[in-house]
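Purpose: get a first structural picture of the assembly so the mutagenesis plan has something to point at.
Setup: two entries, given in the order below. No constraints added.
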Amino acid sequence: MGKLLKKIFLVDLFQGLRVTFRSQNPRSIVTEQYPAERPRIAERYRGAPRMNTNPETGESLCIGCNLCALACPESLIVMTSERNEKTKRKELATYTFDLSRCMFCGLCEDACPTDALELTQDFELATYTREGQIWDRKMLEEGPRPTRYKW
Amino acid sequence: MPDATFLDSTELVLNMGPQHPSTHGVLRVILKLDGERVLGTDCVIGYLHRGVEKIAENRTYAQFNPYVDRMDYVAAVSNGLGYCLAVEKLLNTEAPARAQVVRVILTELNRIASHLLWLGTHALDIGAITPVFYCFREREEALHIFEQYCGARLTTHAFRIGGLQYETYDGFERDVQAFCDMFLAKVDEYEELLTNNRIWVGRLQNVGVLSADECKEYGVTGPVLRAAGVKWDLRKAQPYSGYEKYQFDIPTRQNGDTYDRYIVRMQEMRQSVRILRQAVGNLHEGPIMAKVPKVMKPPVGEAYVSIEAPKGELGYYIVSDGSVQPYRVRVRPPSFVNLQALDRMVRGALIADVVAVIGTLDIVLGEVDR
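Result (structure tokens, whole complex):
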């Protein structure tokens, strides 16, 4: 009998609707207004790569050891280094990071002995061309350049 | 299926997928229909095949670690755990106690996240639009803990061979505790929405029944097996990563229909919270990385490790030839094996039930195709 009454008065449906109406409180809105409002990005987030420089001298922290290129599962880091005749130290010559193939696993930054290579919180990496995804040393040090379009 | 039915003019062959939203990815099911009745199915898989097992043969052990996240991308942490345990077995090492506890915490959080995604999309398939928003709200909290811990939300690469790369962040215990406190009430909320709902019950009860014997025949594992009444959970049967230290129950049901699988998964989420609470209390100071050589060259041999992933038994079989790269990596994916039962479950049912059954199997096509 109770079962039948429950069925007639749609008890099960109103039970569910109670949850819906409980969530109508404006305080329980959790939608992120993304472009207008910046999302909360964790400190350890693995996003766009960055090549750190010494803030005092502006010199690259990279010692040209090639460990990041060896650690990368996708072999997307290509670098060359040359020996500085004055200081007798290895110095970075060229460095490219192909972001289009990167899966942000973080193995390169783990491998870096000097914390030169770092994955940052920057996550907006869209470009209009594939070539734009290949970051050279300058881009890695200064961040991506804004693209200008003529029309 | 008898061949004669093919000649029958009433039979209709219909492609469901690969772009069908209810096939949860790129699964193509060729349905043979008589009106609304399903006479038989043929699954066409491989649309998401990336050759992950072959990629493994060209990567070092550490380098392959991020790829396993991309098989079952909904439960990437479990995949990482299975792979790391397998390589650790080859290397004959074990992760330190603290690392094991953190692994348990993250894996259980991932189990909850995976079940939440399943619940939301499954309800969406059935026609209940509301739960998915609530599910994703809570899943977001779990993913935010992942992001703060290891820097990624989905393809986490959280574990390394021999332990962990990252120490827990400040407030990790507090966050997990807060999640546990918040979450149980939310599970009640989902149950309030669905468990007694007449449409939900009507669409799920006695749909896609798979008996215990049939489950064993097909090798089906996970919640699908437990809903048929078999008390089998690898966390209890062959404990790994210190699961023997935690108190939890294996939820089972008797009928083995879609509704029971729903109930089992809901209870599993509650059990995961129970494990999480114990694990957070169990978190002591200590090293997080075992002594593992930088260049890993496991001795010649093979290892098979299986863990209880959210979807069932996830196994990694790795053969080492003594070099830096694995000779062969074979994955035993729960989704692939569970999908094989689809034909048995939907034969004689209606088309709408096919959608319900695909949803209840909780497949991820990234794992089916690899």
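Chain A has five helices and five strands.
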